[in-house]
Amino acid sequence: MPYVFYLRAIHFLMLCEILSLGYGANVGMLPKATGTSSSNLPQWSPKGDAHPDSGASTLPLFTLNYPRVQIPLEITLWVLLASFAKIGFHVYHKITVWVPESCLLISIGLIVGGIMHSVHEEPPAVLTSNMFFLYMLPLIVLDSGYFMPTRPFFENFGTVLWFAVVGTLWNSIGIGISLFAICQIEAFGVQDINLQENLLFASIISAVEPVAVLTVFEDISIHEQLYIVVFGECLFNDAVTVVLYNLFNHVAELHVVEAGDVFLGIARFFVVGLGGMLFGLLFGFVAAFTTRFTGKVREIEPLIIFLYSYLAYLIAELVAISSIMAIVTCALTMKYYVEENVSQRSCTTIRHVIKMVGSVSETLIFFFLGVVTITTDHEWNWGYILFSLLFTLLWRGLGILVLTQIINPFRTIPFNFKDQFGLAFCGLRGAVSFALAYTLPDSIGPKKLFITGTIVIIIFTVFIQGITIRPLLKLMNVRKTNRNLETINVEIHKRLMEHTVAGIEDLCGQWSHYYWKDKFMKFNNRFIRKILIRDNRPESSIVALYKKLELQNTMEILDSMTGDISATPSLISLHEERKNASKSRKVLPSDVRNMHELLSKNMYKIRQRTVSYTNKHSLPNDVTAKEILIRRHTSLRRSLRAGSFHSPHGNKASQKFLSLPVNSRLPPGRFSHAGDGDNEPEMNLSSVSSMFRHPQRSSSRTTIPLRPLGSLKVVSSSVKVVDEENEKQRGYRSSHLRSSFTSSAQQSSRSLYGSTRNISDEDGGSEHEEQESPPDPHAWVQDPQNNSDMQHPLLRRSQWPPQKPQDE
Amino acid sequence: MGGSQSDRAHKFQHLSDKTGFSIDQINSLHKRFMSLTENEGVLRREHLDNIINLAVNPIRRQITGAFFDKRNLGQNEDGYLQEIEFEDFLTILAFFTPPKQGTSEEEKQNIKKEKLRFLFNMHDTDNDGFITLDEYKRLVEELLSSNETIETETAKAISDAAMLEVASVTMGQMGPDEYYEGITFAHFQKILKGIQIETKMNINFWNLDTIRVQCGKSK
User: Fold this and answer.
1) Closest CB to A506 among B57, B122, B216
2) Is B84 helix (H, G, I), strand (E, B) or coil?
3) What does the CA dihedral A619, A620, A622, A625 come to, rounded to 10 degrees?
4) pLDDT confidence bin for A557, thresholds 50/70/90
5) Is A411's CB within 8 Å of B192's CB?
């Protein structure tokens, strides 16, 4: 059982931790790298000095210089432990379906904290204010900022900002004032907390945490508007909260607050927010401009992105404007342009690394929250804490109710009651709140009470709301959407619709975001792109999608040709890429035209052939017969044919294919808001997901020998015989596997056919699942006799027993 | 004067019942209509050609066409009118009203169907019930016409691919001699099932004159 193994691994790691703690007793467990934790340095230096001394006397056979490596070692171990925890949750992924990951992380943290407490260990001094604000927070927000789905975000821009700014202000001020009122009641004994401190606390606990909720949203594929509003709200709400936090932090240290200060505070609020946005825009454009020139030095492309984002953050911090705003705007701005400039692999790396550091940083905070909950001494005040919990929930609910009433008339699709409930219920508090509370300066009197209160609120919301939100939303049957649309038709009609709406609006003198989008796109195409993008070729998203699908197919073919190289972006491949810089550019925007022409000719032939095939025989009525798939068939057929020459290998491989789906249900995308731009080409989801699937693909492909690309066109008839033999075997086999296979047909096609993934995703949602879900296992039915060369592995799979596919 | 005033109010009330617009919206749309038609009261194609913003819209031909399309105007015949009146104008715009809250599932389906039908009619210029490859291609070309760099080859490739996609999704098995002649409305509905048109093809008809909120009355 992997789970047992995982537990053992955790135990082992804990042991390591404890041992290391025992050794470096009383030293901050994860001390800040710069070494501000005071207990750290004194201990470190004497031992460091001691070593050369002992080395001078005799040459030791074996030395243990723990202090030297202590800091990085401990950090590594913590991160490793947290990562193991994450792996573990997904190994046994039934848990994560019902319990959000943050709950599990906190629980693990609680256990570790309990152990540490029992050995009388000091709480680690990791989370200093600087550590959090300079290293962890930027990573978290960069993650969300970069993966913000652009199109729906701008479509709901107003609402998002409305909830993020006004909603957070509403919460902070509402909670702050009502808590202040509570403080006046003598029975609770907290009269010493003044209004400023209450407001500070309130601002801390109004930061809403998206990850848990968004994961649930992804899984039940909730409708776009709700999704994006929660996403955007959480993101910008962090920015607002931090601004408020700093503001109130400042104010809380003043003893007298004058009316002038209040106005200054309000003015500052706007200066800070808008300033951050401007900075972000500036850096975003500069970053995009820089990547224009990285064509020859591919390996530093990802670095450019990280450096500029971080620079935006730091400089914004330097001049004390909203650094979160800056980094988020920077990420949003540059994403679009950068991803056209950089190579496919750099793009993959960027996404991967951003995702990784973001989630690690968040994981650590949750983990740490658990530890701190046990190890610090709390100041518990029933009245204050329970009332703050009550007010948190109350003001959130009220806020959503009132704010949606105000915003609804302006929305094309107003939020209905269910949506409002969803919004209100999604107000989990999380990592940012905790970090803010924990890093409060000591000069704040009731700091301990605040930390305790924050922890209680976080644990309550994360556990109770986090666990119940999925069943509740399911129960309420909130409006769903099919978020994986990527077919040419859909794209065309989306455009068509947008243009129509824009046209009609022009016609009756109305305007909306379509109007602005039109205007912006024109400006963008005319000026911005020319400056920022190396090979500027303004293109419609339809063409982009079409090219993308074609490109994917090509990549597939190339992939199978070059084996593992693309799967492991190693140093070698980087070098190779640099060597072939000009050559590999051809695949990417620069000379898609050549490629495209080449392809479209090739494709066109295939297409014609396919059409005739359509006439002669039959097309499977689902996934398989899409344009791309047909091309894909060709490549698959080719590879299978290659396999059939090495018959045993080929069989083995196909067996692997067939058995894969049975237990390879992919875990519900943990951070799948990575991919929520499915329906917008800019997001280029497929490259994200393809990178996740690379290993799988390559491993299942290793048995396939390389073949020249030219065989794409070759249709060998001699192979057919061999194929048909294999076919029969497969046919029988598939009849055994059929039921399980089809029940997870979607997964299987995901894992099997990299390039067709989009389509099968889409189909799983729209056509495929509805029409031929498990009850009808013969999705890809073909007539075995008619096995012409255009019928391929895909069809073969379940062609036994033959049956007519149902049609409309 | 008073007579015509109340007459007009009565007429607007009638239109409001028919199209679902509020009286205020109808008033402001009427103003717009009159200014478009230069107070003639009947709208002709050349009026629409004068709109500057519309001139840059890649599919203006289809959009203006839709206003004069008899099929959209609830008439059971095809072909195009030369001029339309205010009532027809409103009928067309009514395709774009957002669904109100509390509409039943069935009504929503109807709204969706109507909107799709509107799009379909934009495609199907010869009204034979099929979107043929040629029609499709022409539309794609026009959609892409705003980018100068796109060659017709691309448009052709795309429309081919799209057509094939439709054929494969909808037809499934085809007989040996069958030829996919075009997208029927049923197929059209099927391929665009996931697009949630009822949440997208909407316009909030604000009353721009008074900047008062007129539309999307939530309750």
Assistant:
1) B57
2) strand
3) -50
4) low
5) no
**Average pLDDT of every residue of chain A:** 66
CA-based nearest residue to A93, from A11, A177, A5, A2: A2
pLDDT digits (tens, 9 = 90+) for A308-324: 999 999 999 898 888 88
Q: Are B101 and A416 in contact (CB under 8 A)?
A: yes
Residue A448 at interface with chain B, using a CB cutoff of 8 Å: no
* Residue A519 near residue A327, CB atoms below 8 Å: no
What are the pLDDT digits (tens) for A69-109? 877 888 888 888 888 888 887 777 677 777 888 888 888 88
Long-range contacts of A781-788 (CB under 8 A, 24+ apart): A781/A620, A781/A805, A782/A617, A782/A618, A782/A620, A783/A617, A783/A618, A784/A727, A784/A731, A786/A617, A786/A618, A787/A720, A787/A723, A787/A724, A787/A727, A788/A613, A788/A616, A788/A617
DSSP letter, residue B73:
T
Compute CA distances A510 → A521, A522, B61, B99, whole Å.
Answer: 19, 19, 19, 18
Scanning B52-91 for CB atoms below 8 A from A yields 53-54, 56-60, 62-63, 66
In tens, the pLDDT along B27-50 reads 878 877 887 777 777 777 777 777
pLDDT at residue number A474: 81
Decide if A198 contacts A439 (C-beta within 8 A). no
Buried b (16+ CB within 10 A) or exposed e, B96-110: bbbbeeeeeeeeeee
pLDDT score at A760: 38
B83: β partners: B44
CA distance A111 to chain B (A): 46
Answer yes or no: is pLDDT of A267 > 50.
yes
Q: State residue A312's pLDDT score.
A: 92
A627/B161 touch (CB, cutoff 8 Å), yes or no: yes
The b/e string for A652-683 (b: 16+ C-beta within 10 A; e otherwise) is ebbeebbebbeeeeeeebbbbbbbbbbbbbeb
Which three-class secondary structure state does DSSP give residue A563?
coil
* Rounded distance between C-alpha atoms, residue A365 and residue A436, angstroms: 11
Q: Is A462 exposed, middle or buried (0-12, 13-18, 19+ CB in 10 A)?
A: buried
Distance CA B63, CA B68 (A): 9
**Phi and psi torsions of A477, nearest 5°:** 60, 55
Cα–Cα distance between A709 and B38 in angstroms, integer? 64
In 3D space, the residue among B181, B146, B151, B185 whose CA is nearest the CA of residue B163 turns out to be: B181
CB-CB neighbors (< 8 A) of A223 in chain B: 196, 199
Which residue from A372, A334, A378 is spatially nearest to A354, judged by alpha carbons? A334
Over 50: is that where the pLDDT of A575 sits? no
Residue type, B31: K
pLDDT digits (tens, 9 = 90+) for A736-791: 433 333 333 344 333 333 333 343 343 333 334 333 334 434 434 333 333 333 33
Alpha-carbon gap, residue B99 to B110, rounded angstroms? 10
Q: What pLDDT sits at residue A585?
A: 36
pLDDT band at A51 (very low <50, low <70, confident <90, very high): very low
Average pLDDT over residues A110-134: 76
**Banded pLDDT at B155 (limits 50, 70, 90):** confident
Q: Which amino acid is at A538?
A: P
Q: Tell me how crowded residue B148 is: count the other CB atoms within 10 A of its CB.
A: 8
ipTM here: 0.82
| Residue A552 amino acid letter | Q
